[in-house]
Specification:
heterotrimer, A alpha/beta, B alpha+beta, C mainly alpha, A: Rossmann fold, four-stranded antiparallel β-sheet, globular, C: Arc Repressor Mutant, subunit A, PadR family transcriptional regulator (chain C), WH-like_DNA-bd_sf (chain C), WH_DNA-bd_sf (chain C), Tscrpt_reg_PadR_N (chain C), ABC3_permease_C (chain B)
């Protein structure tokens, strides 16, 4: 499973993380190259989400290191990691991620505005993304007024709006039915491939994982890369 | 019927269980609402205790009161003389006391004392004892340098922090020095009636301080409301009907209210101990006197749970708890202005007839004024939600933090508005009060006329004994800080016309050297032996004697036989002089003479006044002057710093009370706003974590919390200031005071702004904690 | 389903008579269709010939059913290889997958490894179907979806089975 040196965009080695007495990660390894879609699978409670949080620079691990484009992620300050997330990463969660008071358009424009773009330019770009995810007509609605599938597509649009190098998707279809899940996945992966964005896709559904190039299984806090297993 | 009862009992019980068995969060919520209700109960109980405190104070004052009795000295009589002295702004009241029969007296000692103090011994109040023993009271201890024979018991004091003493004497006489009495108590002390303006002030203060309390209790009961609604929705899913959810919610609310009342009672006991230990401008109370009146207590104990029930039901009215979730009903319908204006307009309508006509001597007008104020203030809280909705509806764009905040306010401004409605009432009320104060202080503050360029302090001694005065002048000149001492005797004289002075007004005779006399009147050619006449204003009806008139320099007090007249003829050289205000501000009139012109020493029954030029920067200087005065005439004199204005004591007390109360109310409101903000943040925990993942800066979210608080508060303060100024102007007109103080809303608005800043600052650590990425884990 | 691998796997827990071997097989995998003794005899002869088992001893009294068989090292390797080789993903694999999971657990091997290997194999096919589905027309989508759902169902059943048996096994062991 050793990744080719230099080709890897984001790697992690021997990650350890525990919350109180429960150990979420116990020596997990991971690596993803630019433009690659990697599914992180495993039973619930296996540490999938924690792995994603550590990789994305959200939760500092207790041990091990995360290297993004040659830099040790956790040698950066909290503010620098926040900036990194704003500018180079995108996020899709299962739910609860859209700000309920903002319109869909404003929600999509949020990362750009966080990065300091003026409102008009941010919203113009957000409109493009909404159109690409086929939800342009939702621009002026609030998240509470749209369906779950539509909301998830808005979330995907938001994750892609800043042309990220990596999108982290944590159970993006977890709350959706099959058809909506398929559409969200299709749009996410198509958009990512189009722009050469790498996707870390945490899911427990094989059908969703089938959209990936390769899968990593997390079991008891250890990640196993099965790319070369057979 | 019994079925309904059973349903009530069952659902209330379920509510109780839900309120206490939901783990840490529900305990916190219950504890918070209990605490909020408790705070409200404390304030209401304190308000209910006001009458008992004033009654107890007047009873205690009555018990101390000794009526002068027209009796011969006997075994059971005593002589009493009230003396007082000032120390660093506090008045210390003392009584010289002397039983006629000495040690063998059969008279009852004063309340709080076991026995009459022996001559030269004093019995002091506990607060005075503490002051005398402290380093701060060192100079006072020099002044009151008497053997301490004991402590005055509580029953002998009006307030717990009273500075009072009894000093045993052996040289008192009935007449000038004191009076003879047979015992203490029995005669009711006269109660001073408040003038209408002050009465109105007190009424408005009560309203303003009490109105935020229900607002606060309301907020407290609603803590955790959204989570509660979701829980009720879950119960609907398993078959509870709407009535049942209401009953369950009432049960939950009572779980906060009932311990809240108990907590409030306990806090009240603590607070009253604390209150008994403080003194506001010389006024204090005993803990055992702070007792809420029974009817009001019962009212509070019934009203608070009823209020919580009413609030709970009212809150549930605006949401539909359906099996699959909570639907807010009120979102789509824009708020209407019309009915929200009704209370305010009613209030104005009630106030208009009172304009220029409020006397406060009829209960009806007082009630009308109180109703009007209550309506106008509650009217402002009714207008607030409409105002916030209208004002935020059109806001778009702006920086991200601003956008987050305004969008939030557009979508749901209920919690924010609820939190600030208390502040609105407090600020509007306090603004009106400040204006009324500005008007009243115009009336109640008298200009003393003192000319601070000419003198800085004034001394008064109730003797004109030449030796004493000279000694005092010498002593004062030697006091560090005192630069110049002008001294004059002020002796009431009367024409020698056989009978007493009963039907003839006494004429002041001022005796001093030329250097002093020229300071008191426009005398250009003062010479030793000169006598000058300064006419009083005509309306006083005092005619100065013609030259040749024979005056008695020692007229007996009214109704008493003259002991031995001291005749003196007004000389022919009498010259008229124009009045000139003395440096203390009092215009001097009467006869002015140099000692040589009298030729005879008058009996020492007049007063000696001294005018000091001194540097009073060191507070000890004034105290040293007072000590010197005390040595000459214990209790029979005093010294005060000259000031250009003087505020009525009554007025100052009310103002102090208001300041303390307003601060308390603001603190209460800040507390409830903080809790509301924290609650809101907690409910958005997951979203906050997602925003952190997106790389949102702390400052952005912090600023959005600030805006979210600030926008409604600024609107609320604006509305409150407007309503306050309107109310103030109407109240001022009602008591016919000069209109003014238009900027009176500034301090309260400023304090309100301070509250926003404090609440935001205090909620930031919690926000930072929520922004830690752990929040994502709950997914 | 491979009877020879299954019998070989059962022998890993210890030497066994042919008759007992048949009984154990029937208990775990028979599902109402017991194995003929002749089939056991034939399989054992073939395994003997290939050196995967050996005769551990013969009970006095003679007769073929009295032979006691034991697995050889080559036999263990063969079982190992069989278990770690994923089955070609196709519908209705449950009997062979079930046998493999049970055997893995009976021989103290990790069912997780087997599962992960099989999932990787399934995913390989599912990826291909997903790609075809994305690029294809509606008919392709419907056909691919059908296959995808079946493959996913197999995998999920396998996961559940492994988890259930694993729990059972640890309960038995403890």
């Amino acid at each position: 499973m050793t990744a080719v040196p230099g080709a890897a965009l984001l790697t992690a080695g021997d990650l350890r993380k525990s919350y109180g007495p429960t150990s979420a990660l116990a020596g997990a390894d991971f690596s993803i190259s630019g433009g690659e879609v990697v599914a992180v699978m495993g039973p619930s409670g296996s540490g999938k989400s924690t792995l994603l949080h550590c990789l994305a620079g959200i939760v500092p691990p207790d041990g091990g290191r995360v290297t993004y484009r040659g830099r040790d992620m956790y040698s950066l300050s909290d503010a620098e990691r926040s900036a990194l997330r704003r500018e180079e990463f995108g996020f899709v969660f299962q739910f609860g991620q859209l700000v309920p008071e903002l319109t869909c358009l404003e929600n999509v424009a949020l990362p750009l505005r966080l990065a300091g773009l003026p409102r008009r330019r941010a919203e113009a770009r957000a409109e493009e993304l909404l159109a690409r995810l086929e939800v342009a007509d939702l621009a002026e609605m609030r998240p509470g007024q749209v369906s779950g599938g539509q909301g998830q597509r808005v979330a995907v649009a938001r994750a892609l709006v800043n042309d990220p190098r990596v999108v982290f998707a944590d159970e993006p279809t977890g709350a959706l039915d099959s058809l909506n899940g398929e559409r969200v996945m299709g749009l996410l992966v198509a958009a990512a491939r189009e722009s050469g964005t790498a996707v870390v896709l945490v899911t427990h559904e094989t059908r969703v994982a089938a959209y990936s190039d390769r899968e990593v299984v997390v079991r008891d806090g250890r990640a196993r890369d099965l790319a070369g297993a057979v | 019927m019994s079925g309904t009862m059973r349903a009530w009992a069952r659902d209330l019980r379920l509510g109780f269980r839900l309120a206490v068995s939901g783990g840490g969060a529900s305990w916190t919520r219950t504890a918070l609402s209990a605490f909020g209700v408790g705070l409200g109960v404390v304030i209401l109980l304190l308000a209910a205790s006001v009458t008992s405190v004033t009654e107890a104070r007047s009873d205690r004052a009555d018990a101390r009161y000794a009526a002068p009795a027209d009796v011969e000295a006997g075994d059971d009589t005593f002589l009493l003389s009230d003396i007082q002295t000032e120390y660093r702004g506090d008045w210390i009241s003392g009584r010289l006391i002397q039983p006629d029969a000495g040690r063998e007296t059969t008279a009852e000692p004063p309340p709080g004392l076991d026995a009459f103090p022996a001559p030269g011994e004093m019995v002091v109040s506990p607060a005075l004892a503490r002051l005398l023993d402290s380093a701060e009271g060192a100079l006072l201890a020099e002044r009151l340098d008497y053997r301490r024979a004991g402590t005055i018991g509580d029953e002998g004091l009006v307030g717990s922090q009273d500075l009072a003493f009894y000093l045993g004497a052996d040289d008192l006489t009935a007449g000038d020095d004191g009076f003879r009495a047979e015992g203490f108590g029995g005669m009711p002390a006269s109660q001073e009636r408040l003038p209408p303006a002050l009465l109105l002030l007190v009424l408005v203060i009560c309203v303003v301080l009490l109105m935020p309390v229900p607002v606060f209790v309301t907020t407290a009961v609603r803590f955790g409301g959204e989570r509660r609604d979701r829980r009720l929705a879950a119960l609907r899913l398993i078959g509870a009907d709407r009535a049942a959810t209401r009953r369950i919610a009432v049960g939950e609310a009572l779980v906060g209210a009932v311990p809240g009342i108990v907590l409030g009672g306990l806090l009240f006991l603590l607070v009253r101990q604390f209150l008994a230990g403080i003194s506001v401008r010389g006024t204090s109370a005993f803990a055992e006197d702070i007792v809420p009146s029974w009817p009001l207590t019962v009212l509070v104990l019934l009203a608070v749970p009823l209020l919580t029930v009413a609030v709970t039901l009212f809150a549930l009215r605006s949401v539909a708890v359906e099996p699959l979730g909570v639907v807010r009903k009120s979102q789509d319908r824009p708020r209407r202005l019309a009915w929200r204006l009704v209370p305010a307009l009613l209030g104005v309508a009630l106030l208009v007839p009172l304009l220029g006509d409020f006397s406060g001597d009829r209960g009806l007008t007082s009630a009308q004024a109180v109703m009007a104020v209550v309506l106008l203030l509650s009217g402002s809280t009714a207008l607030l939600p409409w105002l916030v909705e209208r004002a935020t509806a059109r806001l778009r764009g702006g920086p991200l933090a601003w956008q987050l905040a305004t969008r939030r306010l557009q979508l749901s401004n209920g919690p924010a508005v609820r939190a600030i409605s208390g502040i609105t009432v407090a600020v509007a009320g306090a603004t009106a009060l400040s204006m009324l104060f500005a008007g009243a202080s115009e009336q109640e503050t008298s200009r003393t006329g003192a000319d601070l360029d000419r003198a800085q302090a004034e001394v008064f001694v109730s003797t004109t004994d030449a030796g004493d005065s000279a000694a005092l002048v010498d002593e004062l000149r030697g006091t560090p800080g005192v630069e110049r001492v002008l001294s004059y005797a002020d002796i009431p004289v009367a024409p020698l016309s056989g009978g007493g002075a009963s039907d003839v007004a006494s004429i002041p005779l001022i005796v001093s050297d030329c250097g002093t006399l020229v300071e008191l009147a426009e005398i250009t050619d003062c010479a030793e032996g000169g006598v000058y006449a300064v006419p009083a204003p005509e309306e006083w009806g005092v005619t100065l004697p013609e030259p040749g008139t024979v005056l008695d320099l020692g007229p007996a007090p009214e109704g008493e036989e003259a002991a031995r007249p001291v005749p003196w003829t007004v000389p022919a050289s009498l010259t008229e002089a124009d009045p000139r205000p003395n440096p203390g501000g009092w215009p001097v009139h009467g006869l002015l003479a140099t000692p040589a012109a009298l030729g005879v020493e008058p009996p020492p029954h007049g007063d000696t006044r001294m005018i000091l030029s001194a540097d009073l920067a060191d507070p000890d200087t004034l105290e040293l002057v007072r000590n010197a005065v005390w040595d000459v005439a214990p209790g029979g004199g005093g010294a005060r710093e000259l000031t250009s204005t003087q505020v009525s004591d009554q007025f100052a007390n009310i103002q102090t009370g208001l300041t303390i109360g307003a601060m308390g109310v603001l603190a209460l409101i800040a507390g409830s706003m903080l809790v509301t903000t924290l609650e809101q943040l907690r409910e958005r925990r997951q979203l906050l974590s997602a925003l952190v993942a997106l790389g949102t800066r702390r400052t952005t979210l912090g600023a959005s919390v600030l805006w979210q608080t600030a926008v409604p508060v600024v609107l609320g303060l604006g509305l409150a200031s407007a309503v306050g100024v309107l109310l103030g102007a109407m109240l001022i007109s009602a008591v016919s005071l000069p209109l003014g103080g238009w900027l009176a809303f500034l301090p309260m608005a400023g304090a309100g702004a301070g509250v926003i800043a404090l609440v935001t600052l205090a909620s930031l650590p919690f926000l930072w904690r929520l922004m830690r990425p752990d929040g994502l884990r709950t997914e | 389903m491979s009877i020879s691998h299954t019998l070989l796997g059962l022998l890993e827990s210890g030497p066994c008579h042919g008759y007992d071997l048949k009984r154990t097989f029937d208990v775990h995998f028979g599902h109402g269709r017991p194995l003929h003794y002749g089939q056991v005899y034939a399989t054992m002869s073939r395994l003997l010939k290939n050196g995967l088992v050996e005769v551990d001893g013969v009970e006095p009294g003679g007769g073929p059913e009295r032979k006691r068989y034991a697995i050889t090292d080559a036999g263990v390797t063969d079982v190992e290889r069989w278990l770690s080789r994923p089955e070609k993903p196709e519908p209705y694999l449950q009997s062979v997958l079930y046998t493999k999971v049970v055997l893995a657990l009976l021989t103290d091997r990790s069912a997780d490894d087997l599962l992960d290997t099989q999932r990787a194999e399934h995913l390989r096919l599912m990826r291909e179907l997903t790609r075809r589905k994305i690029d294809g027309d509606l008919a392709d989508q419907l056909v691919c979806d059908h296959a995808l759902f079946h493959l996913e169902a197999d995998l999920r059943w396998l996961e559940l089975t492994a988890a259930r048996l694993d729990r059972l096994a640890s309960e038995v062991r403890s």
